[in-house]
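User: Sequence recovery, please. Input:
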């Protein structure tokens, strides 16, 4: 672009296998000058005339589904001879140059690939947090308006600064860590839990939900935990605790047989069935007729080989026939998948 200027690189985190798709997405949606792969799941993206805030908006709205975390690179220390005190001192300087004195700051530290410094993310966090504390700043892991990132990668140690709403995710590098509880039914429930806990989408806390292909019941458990009455549709068994729950209605049949005959209207539909992405979306179009106006729908797109971003765009277009897509993103707990949240348009169906 004539007359525009290149900004400092934006650090973009993604799943290791999806560097090529996220690069194609970014080049399609933003004025990319160059993309440098810094680590297995980290790239530095140089933009022409676009800052971090605008890119974050583009990532959400376009959407760029394979970007998991963003921060604006403010400094990079080379690996040769780097020390923890040097990184911490530079971090304090970066913050002092850009933010008012005092106040709270979130700190995120992680390693992309092999740790060539030998620091480890925990020691890096402690050193920087202590230095910031000594300079009069309170450090939190999450919550404050501004986020300082420190990432060790193959090319050095990068320090980044972003407003919390620009980072996309409140976890270092988008790596959401969830503990498995005693009541957990399956690891698949982490996907829904991550989606609910890391976004501000209006997931209902009461009402009726339908869980498509529910067995063994991981997503049903999360929905019940939130206070929803759940219709779990699957010929397979549910976990015993769920089978005994009077507010879990186990419909031992297929989705295709259940939908035409049910008189129930739902506030939320979730679909984590293992099937081709297009078929999953067509199923959600069928589900639309049993949803209340404004109901939310969650669907996991199981991706194959090829150009996954094209598959996702095609699926979002298909869902757009009945829904407004609110979010489409590859979560940390997605494996070769993308999670989509959509809202049924009030004017397009669903009885009361």
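Assistant: Recovered sequence (352 residues):
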């Amino acid at each position: 672009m004539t007359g525009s200027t290149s900004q400092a690189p934006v650090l973009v985190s993604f799943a290791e296998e999806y560097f090529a798709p996220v690069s194609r997405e970014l080049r399609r949606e933003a004025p990319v000058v160059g993309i440098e792969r810094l680590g297995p799941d980290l790239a530095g993206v140089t933009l022409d005339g676009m800052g971090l805030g605008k890119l974050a908006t583009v990532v959400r709205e376009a959407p760029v589904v394979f970007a998991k975390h963003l921060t604006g690179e403010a400094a990079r220390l080379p690996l040769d001879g780097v020390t923890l005190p040097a990184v911490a001192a530079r971090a304090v300087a970066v913050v002092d140059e850009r933010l008012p004195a005092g106040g709270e700051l979130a700190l995120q530290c992680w390693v992309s690939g092999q740790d060539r410094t030998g620091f480890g993310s925990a020691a890096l966090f402690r050193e920087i947090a202590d230095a910031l504390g000594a300079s009069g700043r309170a450090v939190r892991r999450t919550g404050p308006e501004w986020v300082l990132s420190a990432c060790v990668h193959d090319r050095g140690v990068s320090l980044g600064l972003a407003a919390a709403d620009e980072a996309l995710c409140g976890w270092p590098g988008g790596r959401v860590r969830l503990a498995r509880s005693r009541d957990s039914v399956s690891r698949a429930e982490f996907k829904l839990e991550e989606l609910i806990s890391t976004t501000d989408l209006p997931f209902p806390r009461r009402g009726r939900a339908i869980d498509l292909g529910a067995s063994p019941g991981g997503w049903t458990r999360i929905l019940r935990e939130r206070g929803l009455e759940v219709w779990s549709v699957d010929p397979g068994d549910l976990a015993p605790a769920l089978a005994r729950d009077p507010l879990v209605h186990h419909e031992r049949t297929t989705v295709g047989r259940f939908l035409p005959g049910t008189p129930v209207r739902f506030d939320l539909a979730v679909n984590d069935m293992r099937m081709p992405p297009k078929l999953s979306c067509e199923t959600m179009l069928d589900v639309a007729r049993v949803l209340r106006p404004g109901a939310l729908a969650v669907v996991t797109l199981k991706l194959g080989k090829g150009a996954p971003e094209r598959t996702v765009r095609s699926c979002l277009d298909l869902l757009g026939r009945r829904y407004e897509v609110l979010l489409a993103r590859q979560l940390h707990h997605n494996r070769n998948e993308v999670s989509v949240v959509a809202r049924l348009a009030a004017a397009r169906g669903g009885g009361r």
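Residues 189-348 form a domain with the Rossmann fold fold (CATH 3.40.50.150).
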